[in-house]
Amino acid sequence: MSFQIEEIRLRQIGMPLVKFFETSFGRTYERHMVLVEVVSEGVSGWGEVTAGENPFYNEEWTESAWSIVKDYVAPRILKTPFTTSADVAARVAHIRGHRMARGGAEVAVWDLEAKRAGVPLWKLIGGGARPEIPSGVSLGIQDTVDDLLNVIEKELADGYQRIKMKIKPGRDVEDIREVRKRFPSIKLMADANSAYTLNDIDRLKALDEFYLMMIEQPLAHDDIIDHAELQKHLQTPICLDECIRSAHHAEQAIRMHACGIINIKLGRVGGFAEAKKVHDVCQAAGIPVWCGGMLESGIGRAHNVALATLPNFTIPGDVSASKRYWKRELLTEEIVATPNGTIKSNDRPGFGYDIDMDFLDSITVRKETIR
Q: What is the mean pLDDT of residues 191-209?
């Protein structure tokens, strides 16, 4: 049965992090996200634009996302009959770039369709390969190595199955060496967020001695070719993140042997339709995938849980408990990790959680309804 989006409600919210999160391009203390609510016949679907506050991860940021959804995405999906949410991506595909903005609206429509059908989101997207997804944590660069070791010890005590630590020049080999001395057998990976160049090959080769699961996006955010060259020199698999924005990019990277693993982020690829295509390309090529995070609120986190139930998500991802990031979650119940380091999907319609509307209103910076 077809449906139409009658109105789109945008909100910008501000949520302070429990602790700053540092990557190679700076520290984040507070997240400003754009939430997208799509409404049809009294039913709401919710999505989250995962762009950061600044155009550092990619070219998108909070302000650009607001404008793109309001001025370009909304007019193209309002009052348009959709047979399935999978049609939304094609409707806005001619908008160049801005996949996070497009994706925030696209995933909201998937949530809406799941709620209208009375099925969980994971089922609608074809997931359900596992009732619980393996959970890892992403750790920002700490002030000191001792701080890093203490944080890792706490996260392992909470049961998380994989530790990802951010690195940058000057905070890489020595930090990882100390981590391996303290924790010789944990599943450990390093995320460089494009902080290196091919001139750093020797530095990156030095990481081979620490038997890491992977090194994530060490080179430029838009590069595949140099990663293929770098991978020839490394024993450690390269995982690509920022430069994989479509299934076509994944095909190119695999064909060039530029990586051994791919991280799939819903926002980066523009929503569920493209994420499923990237997943299928990787699965056919024998390339494992995992679900990356962008410091999402509970809405984006719940969408990630649904995505990670697809069968080729075999590596613990960045989807972890709400309390690791937020003093208060915007859901009426937090997303929690089990003592075994997993997060359970649930069978409730849509993304599976209720929103604490009073709290949401209290952290809303601005809102607008488009009809």
A: 96
How far apart are alpha carbons 85 and 90 in whole angstroms?
Answer: 10
Contact of 364 with 13, CB cutoff 8 Å? yes
The tokens describing 180, both together, are 């391996």
Residue 262 to residue 251: CA distance in whole angstroms: 11
pLDDT in tens, 251-271: 999 999 999 999 999 999 999
Q: Bridge-partner residues for 30, per DSSP?
A: 16
How many CA atoms does the CB half-sphere of 21 hold within 13 Å?
A: 20
DSSP assignment letter at 331? B
Q: What is the pLDDT of residues 307-320, one digit of tens each?
A: 999 999 999 999 99
By the 10 Å C-beta count (0-12 exposed, 13-18 middle, 19+ buried), 34 is classed as buried
- Chain-centre distance of CA 268, in angstroms? 8
Residue 119's pLDDT is what? Answer: 98
Indicate if the pLDDT at residue 106 is higher than 90.
yes
pLDDT of 278 above 90: yes
Helix and strand element counts for the chain (H, E):
14, 13
pTM: 0.96
Give the whole-angstrom CA distance, residue 320 versus residue 340: 12
Distances in Å between the alpha carbon of 52 and those of 65, 247, 368? 10, 23, 20
Structure tokens at 117: 């059908």
Contact by Cβ (8 Å): 133, 321? no
Tokens for 263?
Answer: 């991280």
Give the C-alpha distances (Å, rounded to integers) separating 172 from 90, 162, 175, 259: 41, 18, 5, 20
Token pair recorded at residue 341:
């380091």
Domains of the chain, CATH where assigned: 7-118+356-370 (3.30.390.10), 124-344 (3.20.20.120)
CA distances from 15 to 23, 283, 328 (A): 18, 36, 9
Q: What is the mean pLDDT of residues 164-185?
A: 96
Give the active site residues.
166, 265
Length of the chain equals 371
